[in-house]
Amino acid sequence: MPSVLHHLLLLPLLLAASAAAAATAGAGGDPPAYEALFDAWCAEHGKAYATPEERAARLAVFADNAAFVAAHNARANAAGGGAPPSYTLALNAFADLTHDEFRAARLGRIAAGAAALRSPAAPVYRGLHGGLGAVPDALDWRESGAVTKVKDQGSCGACWSFSATGAMEGINKIKTGSLVSLSEQELIDCDRSYNSGCGGGLMDYAYKFVVKNGGIDTEEDYPYREADGTCNKNKLKKRVVTIDGYSDVPSNKEDLLLQVVAQQPVSVGICGSARAFQLYSQGIFDGPCPTSLDHAVLIVGYGSEGGKDYWIVKNSWGESWGMKGYMHMHRNTGDSKGVCGINMMASFPTKSSPNPPPSPGPGPTKCSLLTYCPEGSTCCCSWRVLGFCLSWSCCELDNAVCCKDNKYCCPHDYPVCDTDHGLCLKASGNSSAIEGIRRKQTFSKAPSWTGWMELMDQ
């Protein structure tokens, strides 16, 4: 059922001619004329602004985006006069952002020339048995249960990790029959040989990391935090899903890319910098779009509609973007690079080995020869003499940082102990200026081995 927002889009459509003229002139439309539409949009997306000045500024941006949407959709719905766009736009959750703000928050996190930076050790896919084979006319891996729900990377530029986990989730389901949502946060925190967490990365190196680590943990156990963090070594050992290797599809070989997608979901790099990409709603996206790769997504199938072939693309911007988080992108355009460069940097994980059996819990944490803390906690020294710890306490947090006052501990992703204010900080400096302040955690005394056995017997 259409939302109130879709009905209210009739307003800018009725004003399409004037809106298009205003957009062409750089005026972006008259903000007061869009105020009712903006109020409805804020209610639908739960947006509120701290000051009247900020709201007025966002209304002006919204009005400019509304004029852009109206002008584009008027062309898409026009009869005759050349080939109209085969997709429509909408005022989605990003409609109060300028295009520069949107790009800074969601894009630009795959290095320039990313295709040339692919892992040189990756095998290159040459087709089924070295050649091309028959593939179905259409295929959607969602129908086979090989695709997890759409996720949202937020303002962390780790699209590469979402693309990589999506491909691994797909091949794991195809090979084992089990769909398991995998941890992007483990890749962000722990895969640092080349990749840079929220600062960007490439899928090849994510696959390489998982192979070297012997597997990857689940999203449920190592959840996403939308920020860089310190690698949790205990979670790193929970290897729930494994892959055996990975392969690259040769650049600009769409026929080979189709062969792989017919076998499993595939990671690809694209350029998401077109303004229309920000506000895409539905239909077959056919640009115009540059080919400088700055975003990573997942191809989960392909099909055709109205004489146009398309890829089914899963994004990581939440369900409020596109078709509940998906896009249809024009395929077989005659351009070897593909729309937005989608054929330029495709890769996929390989798997033939079964996943390891569930590992037993780590058990008590050993502090010293005769002293232990409960599972999932951290040993911290509470009394030290001449460099030797004579008494231990237990921090209730896993993989925590012990404060130097020997009384408190901090979460591993808030590692700075501010003893003056009783806080845990992300970084050193003025505590009032640091994002993500958390209170310290108190200790309980660590039991001896004898005490631990008594606890186990209870």
TrEMBL record:
InterPro entries: Granulin, Granulin_sf, Papain-like_cys_pep_sf, Pept_asp_AS, Pept_cys_AS, Pept_his_AS, Peptidase_C1A, Peptidase_C1A_C
Residue stretches making up the Peptidase C1A papain C-terminal domain: 135-350
Family: Belongs to the peptidase C1 family.
Protein name: Cysteine protease
Positions of the Cathepsin propeptide inhibitor domain: 38-102
Gene Ontology terms for molecular function: cysteine-type peptidase activity
Signal peptide range: 1-21
A Pfam family the protein falls into: Granulin
Keywords, sorted A to Z: Cell membrane, Disulfide bond, Glycoprotein, Hydrolase, Membrane, Protease, Signal, Thiol protease, Vacuole
The Granulins domain, residue ranges: 367-424
Protein location: Cell membrane; Vacuole
GO BP term, pick one: programmed cell death involved in cell development
Domain of life: Eukaryota
